[in-house]
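G., before I forget:
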Amino acid sequence: MAVNPRQAEHAITKEAQASSAIDHSRIGLSVAETAAIDRSSRGPVLLCFFLSIIWLLVGTVFGDISSFKFDRPDLLTSQPYFTFGRLRPAHLNVMVYGWASTAMFGVSLWLMPRLCRVQLKIPAVAMAGIVLWTIGVAVGVWLLLDGVSDGLEWLEFDHRSADPLMAAGAALVGASVWKTLLNRQVSHLYVSIWYVASSYPWFLIIFTAGNLPVYQGVESAAVNWFFAHNALGLWLTTINLGLIYYLMPKIIGRPVYSYWLSLIGFWGLALFYALNGMHHLIGGPIPSWMIATSITASIMMIIPVVAVGINQHMTIVGRFGAMRYSPALTLLVLAAMSYTAVSLQGILTALVSVNRITHFTHWTIAHSHLGLYMFVTLSLFGGIYYILPRLLGREWPSRNLIRAHILLVGFGMVLYVVALGIGGVLQGLHLLDANSSFEASVNATKPWLLMRSVSAIIITLGHVLFAVHIAWLWLLRDKTGPEQSPFFYVRPILVKSPTKVPGR
Amino acid sequence: MSDAHLKNSHQQPVQNEISELALHDKEMREIAEPYEAPTTGPKWFYLFMVISLAIGSFYLGRHMGKLDASIHIGFFEKNKPADTSAVTAAQSPASGASLFTSKCASCHQADGKGLPGAFPPLAESEFVLGNPERLISIVLKGLTGPLEVEGQSFNGTMPAWEDQMSDQELVAVINHIRNKLGNNQASEIQLQDVQKVREQTASRTQPWQADELEVAYP
């Protein structure tokens, strides 16, 4: 175990850690204080969630059309901005930067004050950051559809106009997060703080490094995948792990299973994930040592992944029943399981023998959706289900809409991942077979691509229901009042409520 | 939240104007903040960690190679030994067949019969089967202008190959032309022959004309 520099003065033994962690939970958070903390972050968080839901719907439309084009190649080809080469990157960028990142700003701005036991610092700066970021994303998407692209996956946004705005936006939100952290009222840092706080400097480093227009040829490809993989590993993953680490034990009222496993999970991720990107270039003209290092780091990811997996499983085990009452918990547990699943799949895919088949096939698309949807998006859905009622002071109006949403997006995405996974392997085997024509590899994927389009429709329906539900919750504002029994709130996270509330 | 209830309760709102009832609501919906238990977790995990690190180090040591720019072809050699050897043989610098395919066949055609009116044939051609030094000098310097081969007339230009191919490659491709195309059957040339002609014609910068060749290499 690494030696903590503060060990000399504090002598962090197991017992000291125990009392420190337990003290931490006792550090006064009266209900009034919690309310004040939530109020301090209310504006920026609500803005983030509002914007992210809009991006979610926009990105869904882009993704759907891109998917349908595989089944009907002549669909919407009359206008250049409807072509696959523009819609598909628009879908990716809207989902990563518009939907997930904006919602993650909201999650981190809500989490940090609560974890630090202090009101959100410089919320106006955070607000400005969110606005800048959103303008950046909007400009980037507009230019993408207009045909202006940097031409590198995950970095398509124009590096002259969109990227500087986005970097500035993330820096401002990060400033607010870090200012809050520096003013914290706790001495012990809860595991979620590590993840959320470190995400901001990490993201700014990789985003700036990835977008510098100075790379040529092979180094450009290497930097491209350094960024793309770390955007997942050091940004999308970290904030959502922080969210799961906070909400899962909070909802079931249990401590996180092991502090030490949290440590290994965090530092293992920080050490190994950053080296993973080059496994996207196996077979490419990259120096052997870069590929080998990257594959080794990918295999080593099994350490933090298993650590986090054990930690979260042991936290929830025996309380899975609570999922029936809490949509947030249901989604977060699914997301945590998907994190383990997608990481193990990623390790498998990084192995040369598997990569030979799956590289350049739809398998990769299935894998990235398992990560970005089943893990990141479901976790953010869970966070929104938990956070929004607390900020708006009223409960989700319809249990059935929540149920429908979870079932649609859950099963839709399982169908998506399974279909594209199978289609991808078939495609890869055809591509490897010298006696098989290229056309055969395309024909082999056709039924699976059709299935993907079906799942896209199912997921879209889920997103529409979610947006409708949020709008309903929003518009309820003036309708809640004294006539409603306050004890509706007794089990605020109920999906299966024992009593039906009149008027709902 | 509920003013009526507040009035009945005979209590003033506590700090921050939050009524007792609202506080009650908050209390009901929030469970205490989570913390981490100081458990170390299962022992097998730490063993698993050590084993993983050992496997990782072994893999890295075995596949990393040197810290230089060499690409990682080595990854694939183990999987496809037959294919790689075939590729190596085909791409060997001294393979006359592959040199012919890549450098000659696009004009003289794969069967060496040329195209009537455009490119002269190599199969059964007197230029190929005759004086070997004449053939070497044509390949080295190129050939231009009117030309008669096997009763057909041509008027084109063949480029010079002296800077494109090494002496060994020239030997290989010329022997291939003289012995493998059509019914060609002629003596093998040696490395010295090519070197000799290269020296003899070192000062020449122009491609040959057919009549010049008659004089220089009868």
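Confidence is low (pLDDT under 50) at residues 1-11, 480-504 of chain A. Chain A has 16 helices and no strands.

More on Monday.
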